[in-house]
Amino acid sequence: PTGFLAPDDSPLLPLLPPHFTAYALGPAADPAAAAQRLFDGLLTLEARGVRRILVEGVPEVREGLAVMNRVRKAAGEEVWLAV
Fold it and tell me: pLDDT value at position 58?
């Protein structure tokens, strides 16, 4: 299974295949919510048996910079995809 961390209003969420498990990080306009929910999302997906987690990037400004920094530190591998 694959996990997907993204804002609640991500246009990608409705497009996910059935074998993906999504975890909402809060509205895209509120990167502070994403910062607060990030580790809970990682732990929740891990507890559900997810082996790979994809993260929708957020703008790297203020709290968004902290979110993306934490994502990079938690990642074993970093691959960027343009959608």
Answer: 87
